[in-house]
Design brief:
Blueprint (H helix, E strand, L loop, with lengths): L1 E3 L3 H14 L4 E4 L14 E2 L9 H25 L6 E8 L3 H16 L5 E3 L1 H7 L10 E8 L2 H14 L3 E4 L2 E7 L3 E6 L4 E4 L2 E3 L5 H8 L6 E11 L9 E5 L2 E5 L5 E4 L13 H14 L7 E12 L6 E4 L6 E5 L9 H14 L19
Parallel strand pairs: 1-2, 1-11, 2-7, 4-13, 11-18
Antiparallel strand pairs: 3-6, 4-6, 5-6, 8-9, 9-10, 12-15, 12-16, 13-14, 14-15, 17-18
This protein binds flavin-adenine dinucleotide.
Flavin-adenine dinucleotide binds next to helix 1, strand 2, strand 12 and strand 16.
Length: 369
């Protein structure tokens, strides 16, 4: 069993294969574990935010968050890594009239899904969320979960390693399906590895491996940048996050303060830019004036694997023998890591899974050749 990609998706699949099915995979990683988006994500786990997904996908995300609740202690105990899984109040302000309509509709929609969400009137905002601009015309408040992404990714790996999973350093260049359910992975170094089951879980770079097998994965890298900021002494971190469109302030349980973000279609360019840093700061300061006092520690950038319909691609590659895809998680890869790991683990080991992943088939794009 070989898994290409040591991001949060690959590590989670390895964990579930070992923990639930006694299958010890080899994770093939060309750089470092969590070196892509997985180790640099904000680490917020929320079903509702700037994107309002379909009811079906939202229920899948909620199932994924429920698995984080169920398994956090087990993963942290097994791995010995505390990834600071904790509560955070999320505030989504209305900054204009059309936001008010949209957000009040979202409150009703969230309630219809059994989620708790409160509309806060402008008169109450100052006393509850004093950092928010006085321009806000109301806000939705919810309680969400968050974690530290890099420690989470390492915890998944360490827990898997304790069950026999290993990591091999190598850059997969090509995949070839051989007769008799043999899959061959050819590395850039020229070395080849043969296996009976292979999962392609290497984030946005999965496109090239798909092409080597003769099919198209319609996925693009979407760069996201985060400003890591610090406040002067005496300021203290607020106990809540604020999200509006792509802009947010997210105080972390570690004491870090994250300001986000961008959605940039700039190909495989993973470098942060001064321009994005300036734009992020200008937008968040407009919405949260006390952030004017914040200073920049550093700005990071990484690439989300992004599909045209914003849904991941999870499942077996049609007409293949033992080749699976788990990628395209876009803005939700940390949130969906556990549910994806379990689904692929069951699929590989039992050839079916109890989790409904039918909406995530690659064939929905009609790009199989
Ligand atoms: C700024 C930002 C903030 C985010 N915040 C959140 C958040 O708050 N909550 C949330 O749920 N999601 C968030 N995300 C999304 C989340 O980070 C991604 O969806 C997720 O990390 C994707 O994981 P992955 O394992 O598929 O890919 P990656 O993390 O990209 O991992 C792929 C791995 O494969 C390796 N690799 C690539 N090609 C090869 C090859 N040929 N051979 C061997 N190894 C290879 C890479 O080195 C990499 O380590 C955020 C993303 C960004 C950019």
């Amino acid at each position: 069993m070989v898994i290409v990609g040591g991001g949060v998706i690959g590590c989670s699949i390895a964990y579930f294969l070992a923990a639930h099915h006694g299958i010890q995979a080899v994770i093939l990683e060309r750089d470092g574990i969590g070196s892509g988006a997985s180790g640099n994500a904000a680490g917020e786990l929320a079903a509702v935010g700037r994107h309002q997904y379909s009811d079906m996908y939202t229920k899948f995300i909620l199932q994924g968050i429920a698995m984080h609740h169920e398994l956090a202690d087990e993963i942290m105990d097994t791995s010995g890594i505390d990834y600071l899984f904790s509560d955070i109040t999320q505030v989504r302000p209305a900054l204009n009239r059309s936001d008010v309509t949209d957000l009040q509709y979202q409150v009703q929609w969230q309630e219809s899904l059994g989620l708790s969400a409160n509309w806060v009137e402008p008169s109450e905002l100052k006393s509850r969320y004093g950092w928010l601009s006085h321009k806000a015309l109301g806000a939705v408040e919810t309680v969400e979960k968050q974690l530290e992404s890099y420690p989470f990714c390492l915890a998944m790996l360490r827990a898997a390693e304790k069950l026999g999973v290993t990591v091999k350093s190598g850059d997969a260049a090509k995949i070839v399906q051989l007769p008799g359910q043999i899959v061959e992975v050819e590395l850039e170094s020229g070395e080849t590895i043969q296996t009976t089951n292979l999962v392609i879980a290497n984030g946005p770079w999965a496109v090239a491996l798909g092409a080597s097998l003769g099919f198209t994965i319609p996925m693009k890298p979407l760069r996201g940048q985060i400003v890591h900021a610090a406040l002067p002494s005496g300021f203290g971190l607020p106990s809540y996050s604020i999200f509006h469109d792509s802009n947010y302030m997210l105080p972390k349980a570690s004491g870090a303060l994250l300001l986000g973000t961008t959605d940039e279609a700039v190909g495989f360019n993973p470098f942060p830019t001064k321009e994005a840093e300036r734009d992020i700061l200008a937008s968040v300061v407009d919405m949260i004036p006390p952030l004017e006092a914040a200073s920049v520690i550093r700005t990071t950038a990484c690439l989300r694997p992004s599909t045209p319909d914003d849904l991941p691609i999870i499942g077996q590659i049609p007409d293949s023998d033992g080749i699976y895809l788990a990628t395209g998680h876009g803005h939700k890869g940390i949130t969906l890591a556990l549910i994806t790991g379990k689904a692929i683990g069951d699929l590989v080991a039992r050839r079916n899974c109890d989790i409904d992943i039918s909406m995530f088939k690659l064939s929905r794009f009609g790009t199989m050749q």
